[in-house]
Design brief:
- The structure is a homodimer of 107-residue chains.
- Chain A has 107 residues and is of the alpha+beta class.
- Chain A is built from six helices and three strands.
- Chain A has a single domain, classed as Orthogonal Bundle (Arc Repressor Mutant, subunit A), CATH 1.10.10.10.
- Chain A has a three-stranded antiparallel beta sheet with strand order 1-3-2.
- Chain B binds a DNA duplex (30 and 30 nucleotides) through α5.
Chain lengths: 107, 107
DNA sequence: TTGACATATCGAATTAAATCGATATAAGAT
DNA sequence: ATCTTATATCGATTTAATTCGATATGTCAA
């Protein structure tokens, strides 16, 4: 996912739960108590939270949450890092900055 | 429409044609040759373009374009000014600035 | 190598968005 | 008053998004 696909990004942002996920991922430690509990101490996935922890918080089915996260990742809003059986998702600040800039300069 | 409804705004932005309309309205004189042709010289609706001129450019049905514009206006992205039988739409820069700021600070 | 857990994908059902043509409303001109 | 032109609204159809439960895949542990 290199170049900005504004349409996919705006579609991904057109949903309350997905907006919340992005917001929560600004402060993962605060919003996801169990954050990175599965990682050994020497490993850290900066800002990343696993699917299960997110699912618990949003209270939608596992498949829906997985779908949301993958869709946000495809749009470039999130990055995914796999560690063992877990997938950690974190914000992609580059895209977020670019889309704000896009609104200011292009739209 | 005072306070920012982010969801409605992102939904309004999730469409290529609507994105184009916003872009074109940055430079109405350039993008809409007949701009404000119906207005007497002493009246000016700064940056405004009437529905018919926009419709001609996007090549969708009159009802679809009218619906688009009204939806963008309800979201706060456009302002509508009626002059006689015409409705002139123009960008609402306040909302546009706010939504970019919202992405940078809230999301 | 079998079992348990985390996540992803599939297929189906429901709900929402896009889009049209037809019609209504509103203003201006005759 | 009537006709025309501009825009808005309505109702219907098609297409896309949401959401689920079931199942597949991948990883680790016993």
């Amino acid at each position: 996912m290199d170049n900005l696909n504004a349409l996919d990004i705006f579609k991904a942002l057109s949903n309350e739960t997905r907006l919340n996920i992005l917001k929560w991922l600004r402060e993962p430690e605060k919003n996801f108590p169990a954050q990175q509990a599965h990682l050994p101490k020497e490993v850290s996935i900066e800002g990343g939270v696993c699917v299960g922890d997110i699912q618990e918080k949003v209270n939608l089915s596992q498949s829906t949450v997985s779908h949301y996260l993958s869709l946000m990742q495809k749009a470039g809003l999130l990055e995914a890092v796999r560690y063992g059986q877990w997938t950690y998702y974190r914000r992609n600040e580059v895209t977020l900055a670019k889309i704000a800039q896009f609104i200011n300069e292009e739209i």
